[in-house]
């Protein structure tokens, strides 16, 4: 059974988006259920920018920006435009999450048509497929990363709580929001350190 891999791997099938340090356009699309051909409502749609050479030497993929929106009752979604520091050659890949569904990797990749199918597999396979969403917390996109990912990670934790899985040190109910709370705590510690340094310089 084919499972969803790290989103950036799918992006390699798409032509790089030619972008620069500057504005980028809004993006609209629809999520569909390929088993019925009908729109899939209320899916979480993720827009992830990817760059080659995330480690500065070209040997690793990096994530300079991520956004999450929720599709409406007709499966439609929209990402607003804006201004970002994505570089020439960075590219955007759009994928989605919905409880009980899996990205349909047998279909052509298209940022404006996200295709999903009902998940058919074991609870262990379902839990393993969640790993690709966990990688989003490594994105350095914004100070609002925790806010951006909280609705998605809450939904993932809710589905995870319904699974009966083989005990694993890499998976436990509530682990997505736990990881975000760690990020939030680390950023709060960093802010306090910076404030203390400023106070000492006065």
Tally the beta strands.
10
The name of the CATH architecture is: Sandwich
Task: Please identify the structural class as seen in this structure.
Answer: alpha+beta
Helix content: 25-40%
What proportion of the residues form beta strands (DSSP E)? Answer: 25-35%
Uncertain segments are 1-21
Textual characterization of the structure:
The protein is α+β, with helices and mostly antiparallel strands and 202 residues long. It has a single domain (7-201), classed as Immunoglobulin-like, CATH 2.60.40.1120. Helix content is 29%, strand content 27%. It is built from five helices and ten strands. The chain has helices at residues 7-11, 123-129, 131-134, 145-160, 175-201; strands at residues 22-24, 27-33, 38-39, 44-52, 61-70, 76-79, 82-84, 91-97, 101-103, 113-118. The strands form three sheets. Strands 2, 3, 6, 9 and 10 form a five-stranded mixed β-sheet that branches. A three-stranded antiparallel β-sheet has the order 5-4-8. A hairpin with a 4-residue loop joins strand 2 (27-33) and strand 3. Helix 4 runs antiparallel to helix 5.
Q: Main attributes?
A:
27% strand; disordered N terminus
């Amino acid at each position: 059974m084919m499972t969803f891999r790290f989103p950036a791997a799918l992006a390699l099938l798409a032509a790089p988006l030619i972008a620069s340090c500057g504005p980028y356009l809004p993006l609209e699309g629809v999520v569909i259920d390929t088993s019925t051909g009908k729109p899939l409502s209320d899916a979480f749609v993720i827009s992830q920018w990817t760059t080659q050479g995330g480690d500065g030497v070209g040997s690793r993929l990096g994530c300079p920006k991520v956004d999450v929106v929720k599709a409406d009752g007709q499966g439609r979604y929209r990402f607003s435009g804006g201004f970002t520091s994505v570089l020439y050659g960075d590219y955007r890949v759009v994928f989605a999450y919905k409880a009980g569904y899996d990205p349909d990797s047998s279909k052509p990749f298209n940022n404006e048509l996200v295709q999903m199918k009902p998940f058919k597999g074991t609870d262990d396979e379902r839990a393993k497929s969640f790993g690709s969403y966990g990688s989003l917390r490594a994105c350095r996109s914004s100070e609002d990363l925790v806010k951006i990912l909280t609705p998605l990670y809450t939904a993932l934790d809710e589905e995870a709580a319904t699974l009966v899985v083989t005990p694993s040190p890499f998976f436990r109910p509530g682990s997505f929001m736990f990881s975000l709370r760690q990020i939030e705590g680390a950023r709060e510690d960093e802010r306090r350190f910076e404030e203390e340094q400023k106070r000492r310089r006065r």
